[in-house]
Amino acid sequence: MIELTAYLRGPQGCAWDRAQDFDSMKGMLLEEAYEVVDAVNARDFDGLEDELGDLLFLIVFYSRLAEEAERFAIADVMGRICAKLVRRHPHVFAERPVATPEAALESWLAVKEGERKADAKASAPSVLDGIPASLPATLEAYELSVRAAEVKFDWRTVDDLLDKIEEELGELRRALAGSSQDQRQRIQEEVGDLLFAASNLARYLRSDPETCLRSANQKFKRRFQALEVEVAKRGKRVQECTLEELDGLWEEVKKREAG
Fold this sequence. Notes:
12 helices; mainly alpha; Helix Hairpins
């Protein structure tokens, strides 16, 4: 693949590939990463094999762009990640064995924290440094709470977190009932707090909010499309149905799925 990518970028290769740069490929990189996630969620292993290939090609392509700019090459990328993995696994490679996944994670995080402190480029080091601003908001919320939890700033129990979500719901209800000039801003702020708390809940329960929400999106899409089929069987369109009719059909679709 390395030689093929170099050929595509060469004078005898593809005009489109030669025209690409670091910025033009960003959207494709994100798209391919999400398609990998979709294949994993669907347990579509044939699709996963294909999507991983697409993602790998983009990694090689970016490395080729960097090599042409005399920055680094794919070998440097692989060497750097190998060195990082060895460095962050002292419990494997430095004769400091641990017995549990939790202890292994603690060892990993300790090395990571040491690396952050040693980074002289950070003028005001923070445990929250380095989280990409381009992340989807749900994943950014997840990463922020993960970093905070690494330094023990976390909820003691899931019940505490559920109480927090109920508290945020109460604050949102109060904002909705208000009549101040800044009501819209308050509502937006409270909705954000609620979403952030829900993201924390997903992380606390050893999931991630992006996967949870994407799964919920797909479930809603599947059920709504089934509802549309049921409406069509009755010779109608969704727009012609009352809310009561749609609610009844929605419950039927849910019961059929459960059954």
